[in-house]
Amino acid sequence: MLTLILALWACMLQGKDYKASYFGIQSNGTTLNTTSIQKAIDYIHENGGGRLVFYVGRYLTGTIYLKSNVTIQLEEGAILVGSENPFDYCREGSWMALIFALGQDNIGITGKGVIDGQGYKVANNVLDMVHRGVIKDPNDLLYDRPREGIRPQNIYFKGCRNVTIRGIILKDPASWNQQYDQCRNVVIDGITVDSKSYWNNDGVDIVDCDSVVVSNSFFDAADDGICLKSHSKDFVCQNVYVYNNVVRTSANGIKFGTASNGGFRNIRIIRNTVYDTYRSAVTFAAVDGGFVEDVVVDSLWSYNTGNVIFLRIGERRPPRKGRLENIVISNLYAEVPATKADAGYNYEGPVEDLPRNISPSIIVGMPDVKIRNVVLRNVEIHYPGGGDPMYARVGLDELDNIPEMAASYPEFSMFKELPAWGFYIRHAEEITFDNVRLVCSKKDYRVAVVLDDVHNATLKTLVVDDPIKDRDPVFVYKSTGITIK
């Protein structure tokens, strides 16, 4: 992967540098520079390529379009500031953005400067105009929130090749933060993301892309941190390397599949940390007819995270059923809190799907489409325990009553109360536990592991630290070929 990074960086043209001031671009924070910045980008594009360099100052702008062989270089102290006026932004397809690139090659945004979308102000101005009837919301203001597509993202690139986003700070989008859609050869390295100014503020969205590196970066997001999606059944999101990042969110840390129309293949998630995260540290889902295959998670640390692992097959678009197979999760250490993990952050995750006690890690397929070939190796998870049957209870004699919920949006809490405190596995085959340790701090009415309609599973070197010593840690139901060593 390092070879790929170097190759992609080499693809970026080392053309001439052009000072932003050369084109009359003002750094006073009040002059709207949209036209002059666009003229600068067009000029550099038409004259062999190069870098448009911004020095110390605040550069106010609406939508601009990045073009082939042009890099925006934000020097330390340079801030590209999004206009507060929603009508200063353009729409392309379903999305609005501060910076668009459509079908361009050899482009980038680099440096130590900042892109500030002023998203809180923009989103609330959109909300005000929807209430006035000036802007139409396609969801009729569900939850009194304007739909994501009528709020600008900071970056939206589609159909581009050889993209470098390096070193910059991205903050306060009005919608998703940065989306790379059907792009090829993308490097996102060493960036800082402060994306918690409004609802739906994802950290980064990789959509139907091929050959992507997300590395050495920090993400603090109101919504999903590092999110892979497949919007089109004609594309596959593949060859993605997520390395050495730190993620904090009020949703999921590293997630893909809640838009899973095509598929996901050859994903490597190596040496990452997730903390203070409301939902799951890792979520992989195949719920829209697409597939998830060949995923490796190695060296993941998860602290104060509401759930650790959530793997799910669903059927939101009948009769299309997804598949999920060949997943290896190794060298994972996690601590699950007894309290809300993102309490006190902007735009906390909603308290929902109650009543339920603290949820276990979850691997759930469908009766006719099972999750296949999942390996958990060198895994240690600490749970708070304390499950109270007087608050919520599902007994081991009630497993048939747990709903399938094939058409529902996939989140770890969707089933409400589950009968295990450590792992609940249902509709799966070829499951391997190899050196897995589960620790429960307080007595819990539930057992550690429940296997429900699981076939050909090997639980090798499973260590369970349970305050209740006189019960079997694994409950097996309607399952075959189960080996516990």
If you had to describe this structure to a student in words, what would you say it looks like?
The chain has helices spanning 2-11, 34-46, 119-132; strands spanning 16-19, 28-32, 50-54, 57-61, 64-65, 70-74, 78-82, 90-92, 95-102, 105-111, 114-116, 152-158, 161-166, 169-171, 178-181, 184-189, 192-195, 204-207, 210-215, 218-221, 226-230, 236-243, 246-249, 254-260, 263-286, 291-313, 323-335, 361-364, 371-385, 420-442, 447-465, 474-477, 480-484. By secondary structure, it is mainly beta. The chain has a domain at 224-485. Strands 26-27-29-30-28 form a 5-stranded parallel beta barrel. The mean pLDDT is 96.
Task: Write a brief structural summary.
This protein has 485 residues and is mainly beta. It contains 3 helices and 33 strands. Helix content is 8%, strand content 52%.
Keywords:
3 helices, single chain, 485 residues, 5-stranded parallel barrel, 8% helix, mainly beta, elongated
Describe the protein's topology.
Layout: H1 2-11, E1 16-19, E2 28-32, H2 34-46, E3 50-54, E4 57-61, E5 64-65, E6 70-74, E7 78-82, E8 90-92, E9 95-102, E10 105-111, E11 114-116, H3 119-132, E12 152-158, E13 161-166, E14 169-171, E15 178-181, E16 184-189, E17 192-195, E18 204-207, E19 210-215, E20 218-221, E21 226-230, E22 236-243, E23 246-249, E24 254-260, E25 263-286, E26 291-313, E27 323-335, E28 361-364, E29 371-385, E30 420-442, E31 447-465, E32 474-477, E33 480-484
Parallel strand pairs: 1-3, 2-4, 3-6, 4-7, 5-9, 6-10, 7-11, 9-12, 10-13, 11-14, 12-15, 13-16, 14-17, 15-18, 16-19, 17-20, 18-21, 19-22, 20-23, 21-24, 22-25, 23-25, 24-25, 25-26, 26-27, 26-28, 27-29, 28-30, 29-30, 30-31, 31-32, 31-33
Antiparallel strand pairs: 8-9
